[in-house]
Amino acid sequence: MLSLILVCVILCYIGFILNKEITLEEFCLNVIISVCVSVVVFIIMLLPVPNDTYYQSGRLSRIEYHPYFVEEYEQRHEEEYACGKDDDGYTKYCTRVWYTTEHATHHPYWTAEDTLKQDIYIDSTKYAQIKHDFGNKQRVYNNGRGTRCTHGGKAIRGDNSLYYVLNDTNTYLYPTTSMGYWYNPLRKSQSILNTEKDVLKYPDRVDLFKNARYDGKNSLAWNMMNTRLYERMGLNVVLTTSKEDLKNTWMRGKKNDVIIQVDNIKNPKTVKVFGWYKSERLSTELETTILDNGIDLDKIEHVILSYYIPFDFKEFDYLKFKLADWQLIIIAILTIITMIGTYVAFSQNEFRR
Fold first, then answer.
1. What is the pLDDT of residues 284-293, one digit of tens each?
2. Where are the chain's structural domains?
3. Do 181 and 52 meet the contact criterion of CB atoms below 8 Å apart?
């Protein structure tokens, strides 16, 4: 790609030297247009490149209360009006400017922010509950200049301050999720890891607070465990009792997953653990722990923290997507056509250097 851009610059410069009708500004524009066409076509060619998703686990770290207040501000108005004739007899226009005093009502609202930098609106009841669990220490932020005034005015009624509460108790009671995206070269490989048919759908993320990583259901305790594991090791744990083969679906991506597949949750008799991690001992230790103790979250978390070593996906860099020769030829042809077209257009004007 860089070679093609360099060729664009060289060819456009040759045209600039040979044709005195091409100005410096037109030469620069010729290069920019040609390079933009190359880049756009290049990006279009890359669109089919497979990407994949993975869970990210966070928790609420801050909540905010924005009280009701009324802002007063001066609104500028202007209008043009005919104000006589100029020396050539044409109508002359003048501008009249005036100001009016306006008011803007800012209604109260409550928001929350998580460790993944996601924002969400909450209601007053939820705010009060989270505030209590965060330690009940409400702080106020107001720099004295009407920080919440959106029109540059001043607050004349209500409370212009912004109140916030931090997670002083370090609680995990409000776990959240997000879907991350990554380039997954495995999905385009021709190896056995590439399966065309999804046997089992990957767990859904309903919203910020709800997901289906615990056997298709939303579990607060499971999500809290995932948050702790994600903060420390960047991983995500999925539990399923499906008799279908989740492995084929999972192997197409989900780079930070540890999958626990059991026959039933209450009294598991068979357990299968797999995922992209370096230590096979994690699988055997988890399977043994679950068979001996059932779905004990404390013991599961302890085993994962003891044996999980993330897999380095740089080992699959050799599978990264590369444009085929015919695609590069198309990019080159379209770039040349663009250069010739802009060259002809710029050479047929009344300007000369």
1. 999 999 999 9
2. 2-49+322-347, 58-166, 184-315
3. yes
